[in-house]
Design brief:
Mean pLDDT: 91
Low-confidence stretches: 13-17
CATH topology: Spore Coat Polysaccharide Biosynthesis Protein SpsA, Chain A
Order of helices and strands: EHEHEHEEHEEEEEEHHEEH
Number of strands: 13
CATH architecture: Alpha-Beta Complex
Number of domains: 1
Radius of gyration: 19 Å
CATH superfamily: Spore Coat Polysaccharide Biosynthesis Protein SpsA, Chain A
Largest sheet: 11 strands, mixed
Shape: globular
Number of helices: 7
Strand content: 25-35%
Length: 303
């Protein structure tokens, strides 16, 4: 088994949720969402974890997460800082917002030596995606072939507000053709969803559409493509105060340039996430059901 790393993107501010949701307990014994993701990743063969965090949350994060996992798996930390920029670029005056998920992955580059997964810290992905992805990365010999774990749209919505989702289109061979970002998506009350396009026209979704939840599997070659595109982003939009270098957009551009292919893996599990504080009870109930059915031990960390 080669070194297969889980890169956890945990530098987000959690502004809509109203707190540092990455370390908010949701399990019956105080477990956080990320505890279950790392547990599932280890079941899928991942043997190293890199936490991408901000310096200002380092102590709280190490105490809430690192202290548990450093005893169980190889752990390293990478820091997504505003000044982590290529030579010749500087932070524009007044900017406080992080540079985005593509930048977060780049910040972990010197900690990663082989195939790796990238996930959000505050999303519950379920075990099947990690098992599929771990096997795919371990077997893959094409340095330009990457992977994405997708979910049915209906399983990613919130009852408490609209969400944005990257709706995927696939080629006949099951590889990703494009990801179209759709905003203000809400349940339609009949197992589907509705949204509006940029002109305000209504869009209807069946709910079966595969969406990207920022659950990726990469070969190390992705870093070259990300660096090139981050440089271009900084030249074009680096003086803006809120623009972000999004990972899905960068990957889509690599696909368009024939620099990469991305195979879509479909998770059999339900995705659970805390977009709004009101979502938390649903996440707690979903995890409790999995614990009660024996999917997870309780407590997750036996004494």
């Amino acid at each position: 088994m080669k070194e297969t790393t889980l890169a956890v993107l945990a530098a987000g501010m959690g502004s809509r949720y109203g707190g540092l949701k990455q370390i908010d307990p949701v399990g019956p014994n105080g477990e956080i969402i990320l505890d279950y993701s790392i547990h599932d990743a280890m079941q899928g063969g991942f043997n190293k974890v890199v936490f991408v965090i901000r310096r200002d949350i380092e102590q709280a994060f190490r105490e809430a997460v690192g202290a548990k996992w450093e005893k169980r798996v190889a752990v390293e930390y990478a820091f997504q800082q505003l000044d982590a920029l290529p030579a010749g670029h500087a932070i524009p005056e007044g900017r406080q917002k992080p540079w985005g998920t593509g930048h977060a992955v780049l910040c972990a580059a010197d900690k990663i030596n082989g195939p790796f997964a990238a996930i959000n810290a505050d999303d519950f992905y379920g075990r099947s995606g990690f098992v599929q992805l771990g096997a795919a990365l371990n077997d893959n010999t094409d340095p330009k072939r990457h992977f994405m774990v997708g979910y049915a749209l209906r399983n990613t919505l919130s009852k408490f507000g609209s969400v944005s989702r990257g709706v995927c289109a696939a080629n006949p061979d099951g590889t990703l053709r494009e990801v179209v970002e759709r905003t203000k998506i809400e349940p339609d009350g009949a197992n589907g969803a509705v949204a509006a396009d940029e002109n305000g026209a209504k869009l209807a979704f069946s709910g079966d559409e595969i969406v990207s939840m920022n659950f990726w599997g990469f070969m190390p070659s992705v870093f070259d493509g990300l660096r090139t595109r981050f440089e271009s982003f900084l030249r074009e939009r680096g003086n803006e105060l809120k623009s972000e270098f999004y990972l899905p957009a960068a990957v889509a551009d690599m696909i368009d340039a024939s620099e990469a292919t991305v195979s879509i893996l479909k998770s059999r599990d339900s995705w659970l996430g805390v977009t709004y504080r009101e979502d938390k009870p649903r996440v707690q109930a979903g995890i409790a059901e999995l614990v009660n059915s024996g999917v997870y031990p309780s407590p997750l960390f036996p004494a």
